[in-house]
Design goal:
homodimer, 9-stranded mixed beta sheet, 8-stranded parallel beta sheet
């Protein structure tokens, strides 16, 4: 049983005067969401390695570690660099083409580093980097369970890659094999309809496990999962670790997929009505440079780029770069220029990536606190460790 | 006659080693594109006020001013702040809801500031800010010519707003009326098919002009246009000023609309192939956090998120946050992990907004130069004026 969401935290007075668009984070809901995920993982004996691409904030990663995360997942060398001060175990879930692995090699020595890999092409490069850095880079072999993006497609090819890793003493020392990794990003079905899709994922994964086990090479770690499949993870036999990202905040997709309720959405973009000139709509100052122009994928036939937290019948029907158009056709609300709204974006990860910072509020926060996002961008972190 | 595009500039050697994804700018093509726009504007007696939301770079704005721009268009207070050192005439083409106008009031005294407005709601606020700042804020009344986003819809309502501005001595002193402004963002037709759409825009605009002229209030400035309509601007009677943004770089949309050739595209995202595991495709490290997930709107039925500059038959068929999937079905190319490609995004403005900086190259640049993007983000510019 999921814990009930916390009652809405009062918004600081500054919500009426702060310049918009700006992103707000309800810290009570963040803590609730972390607790729900950790409770699920514990109940099913799964390690929890949240993906920090969603928030890019060491301060939030620290909360995840404190809540029980076994490590963190990152998508870029910069995310690894800014998260190293708050976690001792990092997984780069992206093939590290040159010159990215050098940055992993230069991470603090106390951090265990793993990388995902789906072919032998990068092995010489990674082995050289690991040797020169004097640290192992643990390899998780990425397998394709149906998404068709990255990942070894045939179980025999995965076995061959694993055999190469463990069969060569030089490689094995610098690039120890840790297990398998997959991302079922193609499974975006409502919780009630996930059985069949998850059974297919389990079957695909099972074929890899069978071949590896048959060769006497059972994987130590089997890391998989996403936020849409989060609460179906226990239906995937062999899984040892989950990597949800979005679940810290949730978004319009999460709600439509039944993974969260609107009362669990912790992230919104505060925007101001700037025009009511065209009948039937209102225009706000949050567009594709604050919400992202990310189509709504959860429900076929439904469009738009977000909805209002407090008036979910109002959708963001269209966006330009700095304009969002609210469709008022299903609402009795008559907005005026200057009114403020809180928008739930379709996909929170890409909206966070557009913000300078996040404003945190909640019962344990005085006014608005500022959450820095040093994981944004790509450059090497040269300053003192952030946060 | 448009000048022919310059021959391709040689790429610096570092193109093979710089970390990807990163955006490259061909400065020879930038200069060509600015020249083409200025030449068109001069030939038709139009002022050119380029929109800097596309590049957010004072260094590029300076080139526009040097090439003959009469002023700059900005979308946010921050863009105004970072552009003030390089231009003496700025237009905020967005309704300045509180507390944004205060930042306009604080711009250097030598800068003339105009704002777009489509209703009377903000007049008391703007008048107070102008009075307290001791500077006028020139008002351009925004009218809707068919896009249905922002803008006064009825000519009589526009007249009423103008009459209020000019009829009240207090208002007229602080908020002098400068003319009309419109944005035909709904016109995205190939150049060959723009006649009818532009005729509709001209008719809509004409209705506003007729009512204002009939009341003895002809507008001094009529500012309009976009990059898709750029070279049709002379077909809109009464127009005095054009505001193209994208035209400095161009993008996949520009090319598909016939506004530019692929040889005039000055902006690409350099990416590296990270996986060839799934047959028929290659995966690169540029996804929605480098290209943006902006659908291709120029040609109905064609999708994807970009194409390769050097192999335009290869499209970016899908994007995740840090992955782009290249569809190889129309190509004989067999990419390998580590190969590098240059991607033309669908919509350049939102891709630039995702970069830390741009790397410039060309005949007058030694290696890669760095173009800073201080117009990104929203915070007040507190440091010394950026380049």
């Amino acid at each position: 049983m999921k814990a009930p969401p916390p009652p809405p935290a009062p918004l600081p007075e500054a919500v009426h005067t702060v310049e918009t668009p700006v992103a707000l984070v309800d810290m009570d809901r963040v803590r609730h969401n972390l607790g729900v995920t950790m409770q699920y993982a514990r109940a099913h004996g799964l390690d929890w390695r949240p993906h920090v691409k969603t928030h890019k904030a060491p301060a939030l990663a620290r909360l995840q570690v404190e809540a029980g995360a076994a490590g963190l997942t990152v998508a870029t060398p910069r995310e690894a660099e800014v998260m190293a001060p708050v976690a001792s175990d990092l997984l780069l879930a992206h093939p590290p083409v040159p010159p990215k692995a050098e940055r992993l090699g230069a991470l603090p020595p106390g951090v265990r580093v793993s990388v995902a890999l789906d072919g032998p092409d990068l092995l010489p490069y990674l082995a050289r980097v690991a040797r020169e850095a004097g640290r192992p880079l643990r390899i998780l072999v990425e397998v394709d369970v149906g998404m068709g993006r990255v990942g070894v497609v045939r179980p025999e090819a995965a076995l061959s890659l694993v055999q190469r890793l463990v069969g060569d003493a030089g490689l094995a020392r610098h690039l120890p094999w840790g297990g398998l990794l997959f991302y079922p990003g193609h499974v975006r079905l409502h919780q009630d309809r996930q059985e069949e899709a998850l059974a297919q994922v389990a079957a695909r994964l099972g074929a890899f496990l069978e071949v590896l086990e048959g060769a006497g090479l059972p994987p130590g770690v089997v890391s998989g999962g996403s936020t849409p499949t989060l609460f179906g993870s226990h239906r995937i036999p062999g899984l040892t670790e989950i990597r949800p990202g979005t679940a810290i905040f949730h978004d319009r997709d999460s709600v439509a997929l039944g993974v969260a309720s609107l009362q669990e959405v912790a992230y919104t973009v505060l925007a101001t009505v700037v025009s009511t000139g065209v009948p039937g709509q209102a225009v706000v100052d949050a567009g594709s440079k604050a919400l992202a122009r990310e189509e709504f994928r959860a429900v076929a036939g439904e469009g738009g780029y977000g909805l209002l937290l407090d008036r979910p019948e109002v959708h963001v029907a269209a966006v330009s770069e700095e304009h969002g158009i609210l469709d008022l056709s299903a609402s009795t609300w008559s907005p005026r220029v200057g009114d403020r709204v809180r928008i739930v974006p379709n996909h929170v990860c890409v909206s966070v990536n557009l913000q300078d910072h996040l404003l945190a509020f909640g019962r344990e926060v005085e006014g608005f606190g500022t959450i820095r996002l040093p994981g944004r961008g790509r450059g090497r972190v040269t300053a003192a460790p952030p946060e």
